[in-house]
Each structure stands twice: as C-alpha cells, then as structure tokens.
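Side project, low priority. Logging it here so it doesn't get lost.
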Amino acid sequence: QVQLVESGGGLVQAGGSLRLSCAASGRTFSEYAMGWFRQAPGKEREFVAAISWSGGNTYYADSVKGRFTISRDNAKNTVYLRMNSLKPDDTAVYYCAARFTTSLFAAAEPNEYHYWGQGTQVLVSS
C-alpha cells in the first residue's frame, strides 16, 4: 500500500551531477526499505542502491560506488539518490522501489520489491 513518485531526472553533461527523489505516499512505515534500479534501452533492469528505511544501512552496486549516494528523510517519506561524476553509461530510466523489511537482505533482487514508481529518465551526454 505505497505509491512512489520519482523526480529529478533530466539531461546532464558527462561529469555532472543530478539528485533524484522518490516520494512515498499511502501507508508508509519505518519498516519499508527502499531501492533504486535503472534500465537502459536494450538492457535489463539493474540494481543501483538500497537503503534501510529506519536503520540507514546502505548497499551499492559496484558500478556506482564512490559516485552515487542514497539517503533518506523519513519525516518527508522521501529517498534520494545523488549521482556525481555521471557517465554516458549511467543513461537509463531510474526507478525507485519499496519493500516491507527493516533489513537489506536480497536488496539487489527486483522481485523482492512490491512497490515501484513510474521512473524518471536520466540522460548523460558524452
């Protein structure tokens, strides 16, 4: 019982930065963990980052470690993904997702998440 809305996508030059937001509404509880995934044209959806909703633990894909930061503001029921040093390979539609758990167990598995946003497009020019 969660609705998710992503925002913040757009066009950016390689090396630039963007911050994506994912606002949750409906029945939102501290037990919801959040994840970011992305899907580029012609490629499968891949895991980007995850965060425990109440615990603040984080987990990143190797491809974004050191460049992306996931964070949350529980008072606003919002999760963020700050993306620095963007590369053309980061071009994709970015999705946020939610699941009812306090842990990051199986955080990289899409089928662990039952609520998904509609996605926001990120285009990194070369």
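Brief comment: The longest strand covers residues 18-26.
Revisit when time allows.
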